Amino acid sequence: MAASLPYPALHASHAGVWAATSDGQTRGLGRGEAIRLAADTPVLLLNAPLIGQRLGHPELNGLDLLELFAFVHPARFVVPTPGGLARALGLEPPAHDQDVPALLRAAAAALLVRCQSPDWAEREGAWTSAQSLYRLRWMWGAPLMEHVAKPKEAERWLFSRLPEWEEGAPRPSPRPVVLEEAQVADRLRTLTGAGAEERHGQRAYATAAMRAFAPRDARDEPNMLLAEAGTGIGKTLGYLAPASLWAEQANGAVWVSTYTKALQRQLGHESERLFPDEAERRARIVTRKGRENYLCLLNLEDALQGGFQGRAAILGHLVARWAAYSADGDMVGGDLPGWLPTLFRRNGSTALTDRRGECVYAGCPHYRRCFIERAARASVHADIVIANHALVMVNAARGREAAGRPTRFVFDEGHHLFDAADSTFATALSGAETIELRRWVTGPEGRSRGRRRGLAARLSDVASYDEEGGRAISAAVAAAQMLPSDSWLQRLHEGAPFGPIETLLAAARGLVFARDAKAEDAGYGLEAELAEPDAALVEASGPAAEALDQLLRPLVVLGRRLEALLTDGPDWMDGQARARIEGAIASLGWRADLVGGWLALLARIGGPADPDFVDWLAVDRVEGREYDVGLHRRWLDPTRPLAELVLKPAHGVLVTSATLTGGGDTDVAESLTGAHHLARPASHFTVPSPFDYASQSEVLIVTDIKRGDLPALANAYGRLILAAQGGTLGLFTAIRRLRSVHTRIADRLAREGLPLYAQHVDPIDTGTLIDIFRDDPRASLLGTDALRDGVDVPGHSLRLVVMEGVPWPKPTVLHAARRLANGGAAHDDRIIRARLAQAFGRLVRRADDHGAFVLLSAAMPSRLLSAFPDGTPISRVTLDEAVARIAKPPLSALEAAELLARG
Length: 903
Ligand code: SF4
Fold this sequence. Notes:
This protein is of the alpha/beta class and 903 residues long.
C-alpha cells in the first residue's frame, strides 16, 4: 500500500518557517500563519516542543516524526534532526531549511512502508501496541492501523518477552595474584589491535596501573595509585589491560567508575575489544547505574492500566515498546532515546522509574524479569562492572550488596571524586526531601491514582503477623503526618505553615531573605550561613527535632523486628519473602540514617558549630520562582567519608584523569581523591599527552570585552562563531547570560546557515544536544558546567571553544568555608585552573584535531595560564584580531557532509 499522507509538513528554524503541502509545493510562511495551520489540520513535524518554541507557541502539536520513529524502531539511535532522520532512513539529507518539509513527508512515508516490510525487525508487539495507542487517540494511531498487519498468532506481551534472570551461586573472594608485566603488555597489544603502532606512554601507563591489582598487605591499607595521563594516551585500554587480566586470573570483578554518562557510554564501546563475541561480552562486562535510572516494570504496568492519562499514557506505551527491545532497561543515557521524554514535556517519564524506593522486591510480580535485579545479579559474576562514582559511594554507604563487595576499583575522571563525594554525603533537610519521606511512609496524598503505596501496605503481612512490628508501622505513619504535605510552599508564602517542619522551613526562609544581600534580585538561589540564628529559627528547631525523633524511633524498631523475622521466621517465609524483607530492612536503614542526619543538623541550631561540617540555609529559585527551602550540611572535606567507606575497605584503587594534579601538584591529587587520609601513602604516576599542542591549538585571550557588557559579549560570540563557521562550544558560568547571548545571536547565525543550540533554552536533554552538535559540523552549542567536561567530540565538529570569562567559583557559604580552610586565594586558583584545563581539554581529542580556545577576559591573571598544556601558544588579542585568526572560508554543505563522513 502506498504510504502517502494527506497532511502538510511544517518546519521552523531561527532563520524562518516553511510548509510543504500534500501536492509537494513548499513555501515560506509567517509564524502566526504556521500556528493557525497546525491548529486547523494535523501537520507533520519533527520535535513538536522545539518547533513550538521557535514559533512562540509551546503547546504546538502534530504528527511528530520522532514519535513515529520511536514506535517503528524502538531502542534504535537516531540524531533527532532532519539530517539525522534522513540518514537513519537512507534518505537524502536536506541541504537547506526549506528542503526539510519535503523530507518530513518522505520520512513519514518511509517509516510507514517499513511497517509493511517482511524484514521489519521490531514487528513483534507492534499491532497490539498500535491498537492501544489508537484507542488513546495518538495522532499516528490511525495511519499505523492501516499499515501494521494483524499477526496470525497472538503476540507475546512485553512482560513475557523479557528474559528471566537466574540466581547464581555466590562468588568466592578473588584469589591473590601478581600480574606479570609481559602478560599485561601482551593483553594491551591484543586490545589495541595487531596493526596499531606501539605507544610508549600507554604501555608505561598500563605497567603502572598493575600496582592497583597487587595483593593488599594490611587491612584498611589499599594499594592506591594516582595516575595522571594527558589526553590521547589511551588510558582506557591502558587500565583495561591489567584489569581484565586480573579479573581472569583472580576470578574477581573490577569496578570501573566514571563521573559522566558520556564516558560510561564510551567505556561500553571500548570494552567491546575485550570480548568481541556479544554473548560473552554481555556476561563479562556489565554496566550498573543507580536504580532511579531503570524502568520499573511494576510502575510501567500501572501506567498502562490506567495510572497515566492523556499524553503521559501515550508515552507509557512507547516506553513499553522500547522496553521489549532494550538491552538493559536504562532510561537515562541507555538506549531509550534521550529526546523521547522531552517530546512529552517530561510528563510521566520519572514516574516510570523507581525513584522513591517503593520497590517491593520479591513481592513484585515482575521481580524475575526486573531490569534492576538483572543488572545487580549480572554484576556479581562479571569481570568488568562499569559504574559511576555516585553508585559506588551509595552502595558502600548503605551497605547494599555487601556479600559481593568489590575489592578493585578504577576511578576514571578521578578529578570528580571530590564533587561526587560532596553530593553523595550531603544532608538536606528541605521541603522537597521531607515530603518525599512522608510519601514513602504514608503513600500518596489526595486523589493520586496507581499502585504507589505506603509502608503499611507494603508490609501488611508483617503487620498482621508481628504485633510489635504492626505497632511500629502505625506509629511511623502517624509521625509522618507531621512532615510537610502538598502545597507546603504555598502555605509558607501565605505565612500559614502546618506542623513543626513547615514552621521550621518558614523560619529558615525568613532568615535567608533577611540576610542574603541578593534577596531583592528577581533571580536564582539565596542562602545564609547557619550562624547566629534568630529567635524564630531557634524556637522552631525544638519541636521539629521532636517530630523527627517520633518518626525515627518506630523506623528503628521496625527494622529490628524485620531482622528478628529473618532469623526466626514463620512458615510463610520462603526465599522470595526473605528477599522482600531484606529489601525492606535496607530501605528502612537508609531512611533512618537520613532522619538521623537531619536531627544532627537541627542540634546545631543555637549550639556550637561542628568543625567537620559546613551548614547553611537556602531558598532554591529559578528566575524568581521558589522551588525548595531547606537546611543544608556538607562535609568540609567530603573525601573523609569517601576514604572510610570506599577506599579503606578496598584492596586496590586506581584513580586516573587527564587533569588530576592541577598542573603538576601531587598534593592536589591527594586531597581531591582522599588519598591523604590513608595510612599507606598512594603512589603517583604521570605521563604527558602525546599531542603537539603547539601546532594543534592556540589560546586567545580577548582583552577588549568589558565584564558585564552583555551586547558586547553577544556580539563577540556571534562574530567568533561566524568566523569559525560553526563548530563552536560556548561555555558560560551563568544561565542568565547564556540565554541573553543566545537570544541576540541565534537568528543572525541561522540566516548564515549556522544552527545554534543551547542548554537551558532548547527543550532538548543535554545528551541529545551533544549528539546533534557532533552530527553537524556547522552547528554550535552553548552550555554551562555539564558541557565543560562531559563533551567528547573528536574531529571537525568541535574546533573552537569560547569561554565567557575567567570561571571564578561562585561565592557561596560552602565555598567561603573551604576557601578559608584551604589557603584562601590559592584554593580559588586551583579551582579555576582545573576548570580551564577541563574546558581546554574538549578541543583536541585526537592526533589530527586542531582548534582554538578563546577566553573573553580583559583581566586574566598570568598565574592561571599554567592551566594550559606546556607549549600551547597563548596570545592576548583584541576581538578583531581573534576573529581574523579564526576566520575560515564558509563551509559548503558538501564539505560539511564529507567532514562528517570522516568523523
Ligand atoms: S522488582 Fe521492584 S523495581 Fe523491579 S519491577 Fe518490581 S517493583 Fe519495580
